[in-house]
UniProtKB/TrEMBL annotation, chain A:
GO cellular component, one term: plasma membrane
Iron recorded as keyword: yes
Protein name per the record: (Fe-S)-binding protein
Domain 4Fe-4S ferredoxin-type: 51-82
TrEMBL record, chain B:
Positions of the Electron transfer flavoprotein alpha/beta-subunit N-terminal domain: 3-190
Top-rank lineage group of the source organism: Archaea
Keyword NADP among record annotations: no
Protein name, UniProt field: Electron transfer flavoprotein subunit alpha/FixB family protein
GO molecular function, one term: electron transfer activity
Family to which this protein belongs: Belongs to the ETF alpha-subunit/FixB family.
Keyword Iron-sulfur included in the entry's annotation: no
GO biological process terms held by the UniProt record: fatty acid beta-oxidation using acyl-CoA dehydrogenase
From TrEMBL, chain C:
SUPFAM superfamilies: Adenine nucleotide alpha hydrolases-like (SSF52402)
Claim: Chaperone is one of the keywords in the record: no
Protein name: Electron transfer flavoprotein subunit beta/FixA family protein
Cytoplasm as UniProt keyword: no
Alphabetical list of InterPro entries matching this protein: ETF_a/b_N (IPR014730), ETF_b (IPR012255), ETF_beta_N (IPR033948), Rossmann-like_a/b/a_fold (IPR014729)
Keywords noted in UniProt: Electron transport, Transport
Annotated family: Belongs to the ETF beta-subunit/FixA family.
Domain Electron transfer flavoprotein alpha/beta-subunit N-terminal, residue spans: 24-212
C-alpha cells in the first residue's frame, strides 16, 4: 500500500502485467448485484485515467474479500488497486458522506462508529468475571484485542463477553486494554485513508510497547489480518521515514487458532461441554479464509462439540460467499440492487436445514444476523459466533 | 413595567410561538404588550389581543418579511417605551433579529430559553446546553431592557387567560426602506423531491410494516403531519422504498426534530443514523426492542393499528 | 471574494456521559473529545466553495490556546489560505467573545464573514449576528444557500417547515451558516500534513487592541436534568395512545 500520486497507478501496482482476462470480475462477490467491474477498474489503472474516479461510485462497493487477488493468474492485487483508488478519492475529499463520517470518527473517537471513546468498555458492565486491564498496569500473557465493532455494537458485544467467559474458564492468561484500546485501522485502510492508517500503526505499536504487549488474540479476522499482514510492512516504511517505531515483534493469533492450540494441548475437549443439539453450518469469513488460509481451526472446534451436527455450505473455504460486511461496507451501502449475499447465505443455510450458522467475525455476525431476521428465520435459525456457542456449552 | 412580545406571522399566518411568548411573558407578572408589524395583517391583532394586555400595530409594507426593518422598528418602539423585557421565539426570525437588537439597545440577551423567572428585580433564565445533557441557570445583566428568545414548544399556550387587550395603531418609526437587505421571495421545498436529511418530521418504517401495501398508510401520516417517510434497511432490501430513504450508518444520518419509528427494532447501525433527533417516538410490539432505549416516548402496540389512528387524530387536531 | 470564517472547538457531548463539576460552574471535560463545531465546519466548506467558484482568499479565525490550533490546521487542509489564532482564553460569554472577534475582524480585509449558526456547546446562536452589528454590516442568520452576484449576494435563509426565504444582500456582509448548506469534504491526515506549510498566525489581545467588556449573562449554576427516563410508555388502546401522541406532537410543535 502506498500513496498514489495522480497518474502512477500503473507503477504503484504493477498493473501492466494485467492481461484483462476478467477472472477478477468473474469471481467478484458483488459484481452480480452491483456496477463494480474490477476488470474495468484495472484497465483504468493501466491507462492512468484516475482523474475521473469520482464518477465511479461503485469503487465503494468492494467488500475487500480478496477473491480477485486469489484468482488473478498473474498474481496481481486488484483489491489493493481499489484501495489505491479510494485513497486517491480520500485525498481529494470527495467521498460518500457515510464513509467521511466513519473516518472522521476514527480520528476523533478512535472508532468508526461515532461512539465516544469513554464508552468503549461499556460491554464489560454486565460481566461477572474479573478481567485484567493491561492499560491499568496488570500483566498478562496475551492482549485480547476486542476491536471497535465488538466493543460498541450491542449484538456483537455479547461475543466479547463470551470470549472473556470462555478464555477465563480455559485458563488462558489474558488482559484487555479497556477504554484505552485503539482502532486497529483495518477498515480505515480499506476505505483508503492511508495517512490515518499510518498514524494508527505508529500510535498502536508505541502503545503495545508501552504496556509490553507482544502476544495478541483478536476477535476479528480483520484486526488479525491487519496486525499480521499490514503492520510490519507499514512499520518498516514509517521507520524509513524516521518515525519513532519501537522494535517489537507481534505474535498475533485469531481466537480460533488459540482454541485449536488448546484442543491440541488437551486443554479443551468435548467432555468439558454439554450437548449442543443443533445442525451447525460454518460460514468462512473472507479475512480468515481467502486472505489468510485459515480454514481448519474453526471447524476443529465445532467438531468436538458433543451433539452438534456439523454440515458445510456448498460454497465454502476459499469459495465462501462474502457477507458484504468488510471493506468499509458497514459505512457504504453501495450501488448494489437485488438480493444481498447475506440473504443468499441464510437461504442456503435454511435449505440445508441448519439451525445454527456459526461465524468467527463480527461483520459476518452483524450482516447474517440482519439477514436472518429479514428472511424470516427468527424462529428456526440462530447466527452465533463460535465464542458464543462455546460459552453456551462449556460446563 | 411591561414586557414586549413579538407577534410572529408569515404569509398570512400567525405563528404559535406568539402565544407561547405571551405565556412565557406571563411568568414575569407584568403587563404584556404584543407588537405586530408588517402588512396584510388580517385579524392577527384581534387574535393576539385576546390574550395580551395591549397590542401595538405598525402597518408598513416596508417591514413585511424584512428582518432588518423588523429589528429597527422594534428597536425604536423599545427605546420609546423602555419595557423591562422584549421577548420573542427563538425561531429562524428570532435568530436573525434578537442578537442584533441586543447590540442596538445595549441589552443583555438570552436565547433558546426554556424557563424564565424574576428574582430580586433580575431576570433569570434556564437554558439547556451541551446537547440537552445539562441545564444552566443564568442571570441577565442589569439593563433597561433585556432581550429573550424562547424555545418553541416549551411554554404551553393552552391555559392563557383571556385579556381582550386594547389594539393601538402606531405610526411606523422606520425612517427609510432597507436597501442593503431586500427580501425577494419565499421558496417552497421542492415538491416530489424527498430529502430525508432536511425534514423536520420523519415517519420512519421498519420491518414491522410487514407489506408494501401498508406503505400508503405511512405516507398518509407523513402528509398529515407535514413530514417525510424514511425507513430502516430491510424496507429498502425488500424494495419497498428507494435507497435514499434509508436511515443508518450505511444510509443517511438524520437529525429531525421528530423521529417516529414504526416497527423498527433499533439495530445498532440504524440507531447510529438517527440518535441525533430531538424527539424520538418508538412504536413497536416488542417492549424489549432496543429502539425503546433511545426513544423518549413509546407505544407498545401494533403499528398497523396505531398509525391510522394517529393520522386521524392529527387531522382532527389540525382542523 | 475574501472570506473570513470564525470557528470554535467544542466538546462532543452527543453520546458521551456528561457530568457537572464541583461548584456547578462547568462540565467535566477530561473524558470528552473535542472537534470543530459542526456548524462552523459547514461555514468553512462554504467559504472554500465560494473561493473555488470565484477567486479570493479564505481566512479562518479562532480564539483560544494552542490546543485549538488543530481545527485551524484542519481548515487549512480543507483549502483555507490563512489562519489566525487569537491567543487568549476563549470567553464563554457570547457578548465578550463577539467583542473580541469584532476587534480582530475590523482591521482585516474582507467581503464576507461567516460563522456557524450556533455552537454545539451552549447553542446560543448569537455571536455572529452580534459581530455583524458591531461591524455595522448587513447580516443573515440560518443561511442555507449563497449565490454571489456583483457586489451583492442572493442569500437563502432556512425557515421553519422546509420553507426558505431569499434576500438580496449588499456586501460586505456576515452570514451565520446552517448545517446542510453543502457537504463538507473529508480532510485526510496526509492533507493535514501537507497543509503544515500554510500560514498560521498567532496574535495576542494586545496586538489587536482587545478592550474589556462586561459579560451579559452570569452563570448561576449548571446541573443535570432529572434522571432521563427510558422511553415513557404511552398506554391505552391503540386509539387512546394515538390520541395522546397526537396531542403531544402538537404541543411540541410537530405540526
Amino acid at each position: 500500500m502506498m500513496e498514489v500520486e495522480e497518474g502512477n497507478f500503473d507503477e504503484a501496482y504493477d498493473v501492466y502485467a494485467c492481461m484483462q482476462c476478467g477472472k477478477c470480475t468473474g469471481s467478484c462477490a458483488v459484481s452480480l448485484r452491483s456496477d463494480l467491474n474490477i476488470r474495468e477498474l484495472m484497465r483504468i489503472a493501466i491507462l492512468n485515467e484516475n482523474g475521473e474516479l469520482e464518477k465511479h461510485e461503485e469503487i465503494w462497493d468492494c467488500t475487500s474479500c480478496g477473491i480477485c487477488t486469489v484468482r488473478c493468474p498473474r498474481d496481481l492485487k486488484p483489491a489493493e488497486v481499489i484501495v489505491g483508488m479510494r485513497s486517491s478519492l480520500v485525498e481529494g475529499g470527495t467521498i460518500p458522506i457515510t464513509v467521511r463520517d466513519a473516518l472522521e470518527s476514527v480520528g476523533t473517537n478512535n472508532n468508526p462508529w461515532g461512539r465516544p471513546k469513554s464508552k468503549r468498555a461499556e460491554w464489560l458492565e454486565d460481566l461477572d468475571v474479573k478481567v485484567k486491564n493491561i492499560s491499568e498496569g496488570e500483566d498478562a500473557e496475551y492482549l485480547l484485542y476486542i476491536g471497535c465493532t465488538a466493543s460498541y455494537d450491542p449484538r456483537i458485544q455479547s461475543v466479547s463477553r463470551a470470549a472473556i467467559n470462555v478464555l477465563t474458564k480455559l485458563g488462558v492468561d489474558f488482559g484487555i486494554l479497556g477504554e484505552e484500546e485503539p482502532c486497529c485501522g483495518s477498515e480505515p485502510r480499506m476505505m483508503g485513508e492511508t495517512g490515518l492508517f499510518e498514524m494508527l500503526v505508529e500510535d498502536n505499536l508505541n502503545l503495545f510497547d508501552e504496556f509490553s504487549i507482544s502476544k495478541i488474540i483478536t476477535l476479528s479476522p480483520h484486526a488479525y489480518n491487519t496486525f499480521v499482514n499490514d503492520y510490519p510492512e507499514c512499520a518498516k516504511r514509517l521507520k524509513e521515514d524516521d518515525a519513532e517505531i519501537p522494535d517489537i515483534e507481534l505474535e498475533v493469533k485469531h481466537y480460533t487458532q488459540i482454541l485449536e492450540e488448546l484442543i491440541d494441548d488437551g486443554r479443551l475437549d468435548g467432555e468439558m461441554m454439554n450437548e449442543f443439539s443443533e445442525t451447525v453450518i460454518y460460514h468462512d469469513p473472507c479475512y480468515l479464509g481467502k486472505r489468510n488460509n485459515i480454514f481448519e481451526p474453526p471447524r476443529k472446534i465445532l467438531n468436538i462439540i458433543p451433539g452438534a451436527r456439523c454440515i458445510e455450505f456448498d460454497r465454502r473455504e476459499d469459495r465462501s460467499l462474502c457477507c458484504e460486511g468488510g471493506g468499509g461496507r458497514m459505512w457504504a451501502e453501495g450501488t448494489g440492487t437485488g438480493e444481498r449475499n447475506s440473504i443468499i447465505r441464510v437461504n442456503d443455510a435454511n435449505r440445508d436445514e441448519a439451525t445454527v450458522i456459526a461465524v468467527a467475525c463480527p461483520f459476518c455476525l452483524s450482516t447474517l444476523e440482519d439477514a436472518r431476521a429479514t428472511a424470516g428465520y427468527e424462529e428456526t435459525m440462530r447466527v452465533m459466533d463460535i465464542f458464543e456457542i462455546l460459552d453456551e456449552v462449556l460446563k | 413595567m411591561t414586557v414586549y412580545v413579538l407577534a410572529e406571522h408569515r404569509r398570512g399566518e400567525l405563528m404559535d410561538v406568539t402565544f407561547e411568548s405571551i405565556s412565557a411573558a406571563r411568568r414575569l407578572n407584568d403587563e404584556v404588550v404584543a407588537i405586530l408589524l408588517g402588512k396584510d395583517l388580517g385579524d392577527h391583532a384581534e387574535k393576539v389581543a385576546k390574550y395580551a394586555d395591549k397590542v401595538l400595530v405598525v402597518e408598513d409594507e416596508r417591514i413585511e418579511n424584512n428582518t432588518e426593518a423588523y429589528t429597527q422598528v422594534i428597536g425604536e418602539l423599545i427605546k420609546k417605551d423602555k419595557p423591562k423585557v422584549f421577548l420573542m421565539g427563538n425561531t429562524s426570525m428570532g435568530m436573525d433579529i434578537a442578537p442584533a437588537l441586543a447590540i442596538d439597545l445595549d441589552s443583555p440577551i438570552a436565547t433558546d430559553v426554556v424557563g424564565i423567572s424574576e428574582e430580586g428585580g433580575r431576570i433569570k433564565v434556564m437554558r439547556s446546553v451541551y446537547n440537552g445533557k445539562v441545564l444552566s441557570d443564568l442571570v441577565l445583566g442589569e439593563a433597561e431592557t433585556s432581550v429573550i428568545a424562547i424555545r418553541s414548544g416549551e411554554f404551553s399556550a393552552a391555559d392563557l387567560e383571556e385579556k381582550n387587550g386594547e389594539i393601538t395603531k402606531v405610526d411606523s418609526p422606520l425612517k427609510e426602506a432597507i436597501e442593503n437587505k431586500k427580501f425577494l421571495e419565499f421558496v417552497e421545498p421542492v415538491a416530489g423531491a424527498v430529502d430525508i436529511t432536511q425534514a423536520d418530521v420523519l415517519i420512519s418504517v421498519g420491518r414491522g410494516i410487514k407489506d408494501k401495501d401498508n406503505l400508503p398508510m405511512a405516507e398518509e401520516l407523513a402528509d398529515a403531519v407535514g413530514g417525510v417517510v424514511s425507513c430502516s434497511r430491510p424496507v429498502v432490501d425488500y424494495d419497498w422504498l428507494p435507497k435514499d430513504r434509508q436511515v443508518g450508518t450505511s444510509g443517511k444520518t438524520v437529525k429531525p426534530k421528530f423521529y417516529l419509528a414504526f416497527g423498527i427494532s433499533g439495530a445498532f447501525q440504524h440507531v447510529a443514523g438517527m440518535k441525533g433527533a430531538t424527539m424520538i417516538v418508538a412504536i413497536n410490539k416488542d417492549i424489549k426492542a432496543p429502539i425503546f432505549s433511545v426513544a423518549q416516548y413509546g407505544i407498545v402496540d401494533d403499528l398497523l393499528k396505531v398509525m391510522p389512528a394517529l393520522t386521524e387524530k392529527i387531522k382532527e387536531l389540525k382542523s | 471574494m475574501d472570506v473570513i470564517v470564525c470557528v470554535k472547538k467544542v466538546p462532543d457531548t452527543a453520546e458521551a456521559d456528561v457530568s457537572v463539576g464541583a461548584g456547578g460552574r462547568e462540565i467535566n471535560k477530561e473524558r470528552l473529545t473535542f472537534a470543530i463545531n459542526e456548524w462552523d465546519n459547514y461555514a468553512v466548506e462554504e467559504a472554500i466553495r465560494l473561493k473555488e467558484e470565484d477567486e479570493g482568499t479564505v481566512t479562518v479565525v479562532t480564539v483560544g490556546g494552542k490546543d485549538k490550533e488543530d481545527i485551524l490546521r484542519r481548515s487549512l487542509a480543507m483549502g483555507a489560505d490563512k489562519a489566525i489564532r487569537l491567543d487568549m482564553e476563549d470567553p464563554e460569554d457570547s457578548f465578550v467573545l463577539a467583542n473580541v472577534l469584532y476587534t480582530l475582524i475590523k482591521d482585516q480585509k474582507f467581503d464576507l464573514v461567516l460563522f456557524g449558526a450556533q455552537s454545539g456547546d451552549f447553542n446560543s446562536g448569537v455571536t455572529g449576528v452580534m459581530v455583524a452589528r458591531m461591524l455595522g454590516i448587513s447580516h443573515a442568520a440560518m443561511v442555507n444557500g449563497i449565490e454571489v452576484l456583483d457586489g451583492r449576494t442572493k442569500t437563502s435563509r432556512e425557515l421553519e417547515g422546509g420553507l426558505n426565504e431569499i434576500y438580496e444582500i449588499k456586501l460586505p456582509a456576515l452570514f451565520t451558516i446552517q448545517t446542510g448548506i453543502n457537504e463538507p469534504r473529508y480532510v485526510s491526515i496526509s492533507g493535514i500534513r501537507k497543509a503544515r506549510k500554510k500560514e498560521l498566525k498567532v496574535m495576542t489581545p494586545a496586538d489587536v487592541g482587545v478592550t474589556e467588556v462586561k459579560p451579559m449573562l452570569s452563570l448561576e449554576k449548571m446541573y443535570l436534568p432529572p434522571p432521563g427516563k427510558i422511553a415513557e410508555i404511552i398506554g391505552g388502546s391503540p386509539e387512546e395512545a394515538a390520541a395522546k401522541l397526537a396531542s403531544l406532537l402538537k404541543e411540541k410543535g410537530a405540526f
